From TrEMBL:
Secretion signal span: none
GO molecular function, one term: pyridoxal phosphate binding
A Pfam family it matches: Aminotran_3
InterPro entries named in the record: Aminotrans_3, Aminotrans_3_PPA_site, PyrdxlP-dep_Trfase, PyrdxlP-dep_Trfase_major, PyrdxlP-dep_Trfase_small
CDD domains: OAT_like
Domain of life: Bacteria
Family membership: Belongs to the class-III pyridoxal-phosphate-dependent aminotransferase family.
Annotated PROSITE patterns: AA_TRANSFER_CLASS_3 (PS00600)
Protein name as catalogued: Aspartate aminotransferase family protein
Swiss-Prot/TrEMBL keywords: Aminotransferase, Pyridoxal phosphate, Transferase
Amino acid sequence: MKNQTLYTLAELDKQHILHPSTSPAFNRNNGPTIIFERGEGLHIFDMDNNKYIDGVSMLWNVNVGHGNKELAQVSFDQMQKLAYSSMFYGYSNEPAVKLAEKITSMTPGDLDSVFYTSGGSESNDTAFKLARFYWERKGLANKKKIISLKRGYHGVTVAAQRATGIEVYRAFSGSGDPDIINAEPHLTSCELGDINHPSYQNSIRGTIEREGANHVAAVIIEPIQGAGGVHVPPEDYLQAVRKLCDEQNILLIADEVICGFGRTGRSFGVNHWDIVPDLMSVAKGITSGYAQLGAVVMRTPIMDAICEVPDMLAHGFTYSGHPTACTVGLKNLEIIERENLIDQADQMGKLLLKGFDYLNDKYQFFHNGRGRGLLTGFDLIKDPEQNITFTPEEAAAMSIVEECKKRGLLIRGFDFEPGMNIVAIAPPLISQQDDIETIISIVDESLSAYSKRLGL
């Protein structure tokens, strides 16, 4: 009966669902690759009761793991009390107020006001709007342009898609915002003023000079790039960008959608570099995926300028400040603090990087293990010394992902640029030492199988 149910669901899925970030042709012909049924802690199970380690927290967001009964219970209780209410027309609700207070107690500096969204793409679109609106309020309406970074990922709504520095997303459907520009990432010396650097013209500083600071509203940066391949910036980079934005009278937006709420072993990614952005986009880990919720947190001067407006703020979402989602967020952050999961992520991340060192010593093609906390990745390069990459036919990253999947570990690969083969590992913050050791063991077995197949 279960197999029949699984077959029926797969057929219905093929007929009726267009999946995100999936080949439509593949899904129409083959159906879903996995139909999940339940989750417990670090693990997730399909309808055939196959058990997988969730090695990327689904989409970097299930920070406290699957099947948390406390989150289910507070959601149930709040739904019985007040499932939904609007925040339009000045309406509010207790969970939204309390969660805003909690978020702003965690954020650095004077990031002390919140605008609620339903997720990361909405948060980044909102940050762009608020940055532009702020400059309008300051009498600088020409400051419209947003500078983002190549390989950065900021979502797939029209503006967020254009800010995303991955060409397959930027080009999709011909949609675009002409006032959003990609710059080259992580050029510290350029951002500090090295005009002789060969990539200076395409750096953030070079882009500001070309466009004119009087036309640039904001720079948006992920503290650690996630879906672009887990790229950790050079040590002084974020400080250099913060200083540049201050010099040029430009706002700095930190996209903390992936990094935020403990993922990197700190409350927020920017905490690793001790900077305070002007606006911070959050989502994902705010509820650990148990409810759809995001926010933009803004510094006092921005909120003060906006709050001088006597007219209606012409921006908002139906589910802004959703009471049930905010209740889940509050309990989620309580669990993260109570269970000391941020420090745990820091310690388990260090253990994961030690495992990468072991794999680096064992396999010539394993290269550049990196990350902070439980946001980690590594490159696969056929011959790192000669910089010889794997061919598209060899599909190194996706082959390792499939080998791991066979062995009960779900991880994520990236190959959206020629020669790129990156694998990301980002398990829930509840991971323990034996979980990390199991993950490394499975990756080891998968690398070995791939190496034998190619005769490496």
